[in-house]
Amino acid sequence: MGCGCSNLSWCCWGSVYNASIPEAQDVANEEKSEVDDVPAFREYSIDTLRMATSGFAVENVVSEHGEKAPNVVYKGKLENQRRIAVKRFNRSAWPDGRQFLEEAKVVGQLRNLRLANLLGCCYEGDERLLVAEYMPNNTLAKHLFHWETQPMKWAMRLRVALYLAQALEYCTSKGRGLYHDLNAYRIVFDDEGNPRLSCFGLMKNSRDGKSYSTNLAFTPPEYLRTGRVTPESVMYSFGTLLLDLLSGKHIPPSHALDLIRDRNVQLLTDSCLEGQFTNDDGTELLRLASRCLQYEPRERPNPKSLVAALIPLEKDTEVPSHVLMGIPHGSAALPLTPLGDMCLRMDLTALHEILEKLGYKDDDGAANELSFQMWTNQIQDTLNSKKKGDTAFRHKDFKAAIGCYSQFIDVGTMVSPTIFARRSLSYLMSDMPQEALNDALQAQVISPVWHIASYLQAVALFTLGKENEAQVALREGSVLENRRSEAA
């Protein structure tokens, strides 16, 4: 580019990084670093996580490659309605359970608004699972490479870059400068549409529990020599992400550097961004990417200088992320259906009518399973108890329904979700909300995408005085009901 440097070295781009970092930025980062509403790290039982993920149901898999991923990630929900992401390692990973626990505890001490924070872990038997905050609005890869409604705006792309740099700066300040596989699938979006860095990449990922590996498509040069990643390797990966943000594609760094040297910047720029930024802004981002992609690790910037370079580039800072992303937000995101409104009003009589209209055909499989397995007087009595429960429920004799359904559930080897739903409503009618909540959760374990189970949880939680948790369950029920309607 006229300076005679073969590798875009410091003489070309150094001026961008020589400026001092304003003290106000450090203060802002400190204010954003600690998170008050995230619980402390804890150990979970496998039974708790099995319940939260509806028995690790395929419907709850959110891994990039689904169930074929080497370590599968599930979405789930704890009894307090906190949504979680559960990463379940394959059987050969982490043979030393104590080593796994200690590593998870260290990562679990981090708490930052720029991270999808680690809430806990489980290491029972040969099970190794991590539990993190669930981010409902997909990955950067989804929004950048596979968007459906609108391409990501320039202002939002800059915000992603800045927030990611702030996440890395925080982790580095806490002694966790290494990150495993930094890529567009590791950046996830929260309820507000803000980008966060997944905490899973902060865990060491090898059998010895001491080293980091990488599966990146474009690996740092030093990794090819040593087989290890360093904090400087993470900066190289950051550079590839900047190219992703600029181009909307995953461009090989070597190809990108050739285009930069030849001044073919237009070939790097996403055509969807036309008119959204000036040439100077695009050049600044390319300069930053080129510094991160230096062949020599020592010539790459550190996270703190990344933050300093990105802050002046910010656009539309007053516009919320969910607006820039075009993501529905809050209670206005999805108006309540008539059924959802019934639950909000806690209209138990209307809910009874709805469960009655569903009928009892869904229970046939449970009854047939019992009858085929072992036709004895005891099983016949069990089947009769279910029929008596149905009759009692139909005639609103809820205490009798509870007793009859309980006899069937206690003996039965296969119970349909509608049976748990009817007993749940019977408990609500009998002023036993905690028991009703337990049954609604069981119904969702059996049928993870059944909206009625979520709605019953909402009513039980409202009755228990847990307003926030109830609203979460109500929104979830609305989402599931609308999906069901769209698929019909």
UniProtKB/TrEMBL annotation:
Catalytic activity: L-threonyl-[protein] + ATP = O-phospho-L-threonyl-[protein] + ADP + H(+); L-seryl-[protein] + ATP = O-phospho-L-seryl-[protein] + ADP + H(+)
Species for this entry: Tripterygium wilfordii
EC number: 2.7.11.1
PANTHER family on file: SERINE/THREONINE-PROTEIN KINASE BSK5, SERINE_THREONINE-PROTEIN KINASE BSK7-RELATED
Protein name (Swiss-Prot/TrEMBL): non-specific serine/threonine protein kinase
Localization: Cell membrane
Membrane topology: Lipid-anchor
GO BP, one annotated term: brassinosteroid mediated signaling pathway
Family label: Belongs to the protein kinase superfamily. Ser/Thr protein kinase family.
Keyword field contains ATP-binding: yes
Alphabetic keyword roster: ATP-binding, Brassinosteroid signaling pathway, Cell membrane, Kinase, Lipoprotein, Membrane, Myristate, Nucleotide-binding, Serine/threonine-protein kinase, Transferase
UniProt GO cellular component terms: plasma membrane
A GO MF label: protein serine/threonine kinase activity
Main location: membrane
Record has NAD as a keyword: no
Residue stretches in coiled coil: none
Limits of the Protein kinase domain: 59-325
